[in-house]
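#onboarding

Welcome to the new folks! Below is a worked example of what a typical request in this channel looks like: someone posts a single protein sequence, and someone else replies with the predicted structure as tokens. Don't worry about understanding the tokens yet, we'll cover that in week two.

Example request:
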Amino acid sequence: MLQLLKTNQPLAHILVPIIIGLGLLPILNTDLTPWSAGTIELPFIGSLAPLAIYSIEFALVWIGSLLSNRLFNNGHYTTQISNFPAFIFALLAVVAVSGKHAILPLLATILVLLGLQAITKVYRQNNASSEYFSGALWFGIASIAWNSMIILLPFLIVCIIFTRAMNWREYIVALVGYFLPYFWLLSMCYLLEANQILQSTISISPDQFSKTLSLPFEWHTLLFVGTMALLILLSLRSFLSTYGQSTNQSKNTKNITLIALIAFTFVGLITPGNWILIAVLPVISLIIPFFFVKKKIGIGTRILFYLFLFSAFGKLIWPVVMDLVR
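Example response:
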């Protein structure tokens, strides 16, 4: 399977929707944890039938996996075409949304990938206003679906500071692009007298971080978290080791990715509930493949890959098995 995912073979493309379809099946027979971290509240989403939720989340995860693949294979990360980003995104997405009503957060991850795709195009242009406006617009819409993603505005400003010479127009268009969706939202709420859909702003309680990081003492959860922690650390090492062979444009893209990893980790930490995996998903789906796209795959890499698969499927399947036993 490792060799298959390292290539661009058609079979690898078929594997992703199969994983998504099977991984989301528990949605059809599970009470879902509601989403409460959006800037807007859409009652009709909460009243959707299980089959409708399954279908929408299937489509969103599939689109997200395709966007992740497209971003990774644009030539700025590596010259090797791989289907690993789509596979990683799909598998981790179904684990992250297991037992949760996740239409809006999945939509937010897609918008984030579109924003990253826009700002990573920037390199030595005399004027990058169009790219920054587009990226800021996607980030602004994402923050409406997921209010903790308001952090994406300072993230975007930091990216401009670190990767561009001073050009005040680029900062202005980034601010306009980010707040434009809020202007549209408030205008529509005023015209339609629908202010009730607006949620309160972000509130962070002192014990929020401890609640987010608290883990149930179940073997499948602890195994999955431990495997993911090890995999991310090793992938970061592989990711950083590629800087020496990277072009300046590639280094620029990778710098943005590292800044994004910090920003989205913080998004996950301040979001009520355990949503940190889906928060960092757009970024780690671009970093983890670096550990597996080596020219030579050793026995240690294979062991970790299959341990990763076992822990992910264990996290998905074990709760369902226990519910059936009961």
